[in-house]
Amino acid sequence: MRHEDSQTPINFAPPFAALSRVQSIALIVGVIGIVAMLALSFLGGVFGLKQFFHAYLTAYIFWVGVTLGCLGWLMLQFVARGAWGVTIRRVLEAGTKTLPLMAILFVPVILGLHALYHWADHDVLFVASGEGKPELLQLKGLYLDAGWFVVRFVMFFVIWGGLAFFINRWSAAQDREPGNPYYGNMLRNISGPGIVFFALTVTFASVDWVMSLDPEWYSTIFGILFVGGWALSAIAFTIITMILLSKYEPFNRFLTPMHFHDLGKLLLALTMLWAYFSVSQLLIIWSGNLPEEIPWYLRRMRGGWGMVSILIVLFHFAVPFLILLSRRTKRDTRLLLIVTVLLFFMRMIDSSWLVMPQEFVNHAAGRPNTYVDFSFVSLLTALAAIAGIGGAWVWFYIYNLKKMPLMPLGDPLLERALTHGSEEHH
Amino acid sequence: MEDALKTGIYGVVAEFDNATDITRAARKAKDAGYTKLDAFSPFPIEELSETIVERHTRLPWLVFAGGVIGCIGGYYLQYWTQGVAYPLNIGGRPYNSWVSFIPVTFECTILLASLVAVFGMFLLNGLPKPYHPVFNVPRFDLASRNRFFLLIEAADSKFDRQGTADFLRQQNAREVVDVDY
């Protein structure tokens, strides 16, 4: 992977031709995805408009997760000050620059509010729930309100956008003035408090966008489950990008198995963390066995969604966990790519698993404990929507990636990141 | 007499002045086909230990096996007590209440894996070792001050008392001596 001629200086410009090719592929996949999603929702689907919006929300939370995960990792690596962070910094930054796109793409969710969230119809909260829980729902009604929902959405994006804007601005300035410690300090200073705001906003966003799909249900670990899940999506996406870019200059000049070993360790840690949070949530709800909480899981443990749950346990955790335990997997880019793509795909299935089963409940509004069987078409619609939004996301991501050198040239840790792993004799 | 001497020693040890020399000597010895090497230095030398130490230890596999046994054992303990021996209806949940069994299963996995890690490590590296022949070398206490020692054991299949000592002398060793039992 490493060129032996260390004489010629490394060219840090992104490989434009290769990236443009991926952009074209992304656009084609995106268009196919959108057409497939529309066709599956309105021609082959069971629930039409509801299916369309649930699939759209699935795709939205999946891709906004990659964007926000990148923001979280970016702040974390500024605070941790590791050489591993310097190597992936530009890739993460390009991820955070997709925030404006994700803000625009939220509009359909607002348009589909009534199809998605049955708390948006006030009758449901105040009248229809005749089974002894109206008080709880009425109290929740103060929070679950269409106006407040939009206000909170704006607040999330102001906070995330502000963090991403200043980080990217100072990072670019640091490139221009390598010797100036000011920007490095500012980047660390914004990242520390930024992580706190990040965890809080992601928690509230997960409650608003996903948990409230079932207004009676609640889980206190839900927010942190999203922080972990989205961090996993983002690190998986970053590893895929790094492995694909490692064939080209500048990365083919200095990336060693050591760099991928570091990233592989993070992937393994996040896989375990996600599993830990998921099991904690299930354990708490299983032990409580309360009528407000348990239906959410019963819906996902029976029939078709039960099969999907087993797939998630196996391929979102057990298989990647066992494979990633080995040191060889983390250092062999081919093996690592396979495991990472598997995990990235399972993140999509997990997003579908969180959102799609609710469409049946919402369809049978007023009878929230009715279990309708799994529809394979729904899952396909969600995956088509992920491909659809993904096309636009990846296109815009690469558009941003092409604008900057692929390494932060002003970072004081640059030298260490470039020589990382070269002291090894294997 | 000659024969007794040949078998009667533990090995030969070479004393070096600096880290560069001993590292080079260790690599040469490895290249020459010696396998039973050991090195002693006042401070850790990463390159040296990478040359000397067999990187692919079996310990990770032992730890993994320990983890698997702990996992299955931990689950089975609960399954048998709660589901077979003394079935208890707890809040209408199934007897094999697998979700509730996860924490103890997890803890047993970690417990057995870490016990195997600690005791397996002692088993494989032979510690604690109250007696080691290399301490019979008169100047060996310098290994904790400013000298570097490379040991080739007599148990090595390539070992030849005269030949090995000559080989070490050629590697810029300050002194080469026999290690008595």
Report the sheet with the most strands of chain A, covering strand number, pairing sense and barrel closure.
none
Distance between the termini of chain A: 13 Å
Helix percent of chain A reads over 70%
**H-E string of chain A:** HHHHHHHHHHHHHHHHHHHH
SSE arrangement of chain B, N to C = HEHEHHHEHE
The CATH class of the largest domain in chain B turns out to be: Alpha Beta
What are the low-pLDDT stretches of chain A, counting only 5+ consecutive residues below 50?
A: 364-370
Give the CATH topology of the largest domain in chain B: Alpha-Beta Plaits
Query: What does the oligomeric state look like here?
Result: heterodimer
**Helix/strand-derived class of chain B?**
alpha+beta
Shape of chain B: rod-shaped
Q: Spatial order of the strands in the main sheet of chain B? A: 2-3-1-4
Largest sheet of chain B: 4 strands, antiparallel
Choose one word for the global shape of chain A. Answer: globular
Description:
With 426 residues, chain A is an all-alpha fold. Chain A contains 20 helices and no strands. Chain A has one domain. The model of chain A is unreliable at 364-370 (pLDDT under 50). Chain B is α+β, with helices and mostly antiparallel strands and 181 residues long. Chain B has two domains: 2-56 and 131-180, 2-Layer Sandwich (Alpha-Beta Plaits); 59-124, no CATH class. Chain B contains six helices and four strands. Chain B has helices at 2-8, 19-32, 46-52, 59-85, 98-125, 161-170, and strands at residues 9-16, 37-40, 148-153, 175-180. Chain B has a four-stranded antiparallel sheet. The interface between A and B is small, with 9 and 12 residues.
